[in-house]
Design goal:
9 helices; 6-stranded mixed sheet; 10% strand; alpha/beta
């Protein structure tokens, strides 16, 4: 069944439209911000989202082409699985499940993500929980033969979170970030879901 908005979702969006106030987001950026706000009930995300040049356009092309989506944790994958199934049915890979054991000095999520980078170098990478995984990804990008189609950097917390996002900001890869300490699996999944809807609405008849 193709994706269609639920009436409660539309009502929620209408509430956000009334309450969001002034902003400088483009229509596509706003569609992403609105879905993140819907998932978190936090209007601060309006001012925390950052988009590299053409990141959205590149992401829409990649999603429509069936590019694999790699998430850091299971919760992010679960948060996008329904929308993926109702749109382009992109392969979904969870990094933490790709590693039964961690490499020395690494977490399981880091280890799995680095393995995914070897298998799916042009994938869409979605980090909603693990800043160490985002740091490991950023460390690998300068020597990667192929850049990911998109990196979504939205880990949440107090340790290495701001630093991991700052590291991502220094990379030339197409990216969408949530600045500061906020983020999390719901926010990361909402960004992907918004991109999937935008890509689905713009597909050729």
């Amino acid at each position: 069944m193709a994706w269609a908005p639920h009436p409660i979702l539309l009502e929620s969006f209408a509430t956000i439209d009334r309450e969001i106030g002034e902003h400088t987001l483009s229509p596509e950026e706003y569609a992403i911000a609105r879905r993140v706000i819907h998932s978190t009930a936090d209007f601060e995300f309006k001012d925390l989202l950052r988009f590299s040049p053409r990141a959205i356009a590149i992401a829409l092309e990649a999603l429509a082409a069936g590019t694999p989506i790699i998430t850091d944790v299971t919760m992010v994958r679960q948060g996008i699985a329904t929308m993926v199934g109702q749109t382009f049915q992109n392969p979904l890979i969870c990094a933490v499940e790709e590693a039964t054991e961690a490499l020395p000095g690494r977490t399981r999520t880091e280890t799995g993500l680095l393995r995914c980078l070897e298998r799916f170098p042009q994938g869409i990478y979605v980090i909603g929980n693990a800043p160490t995984a985002l740091l490991a990804l950023c460390d690998s990008l300068p020597t990667a033969p192929v850049a990911p189609a998109l990196v979504i950097g939205a880990p949440v917390g107090f340790v290495a979170v701001v630093e991991s996002k700052a590291a991502l900001a220094q990379q030339g890869v197409p990216q969408i970030r949530v600045e500061g300490r906020k983020g999390g699996s719901p926010a990361a999944a909402a960004i992907v879901n918004a991109l999937l809807v935008l890509a689905w609405e713009r597909r050729s008849p």
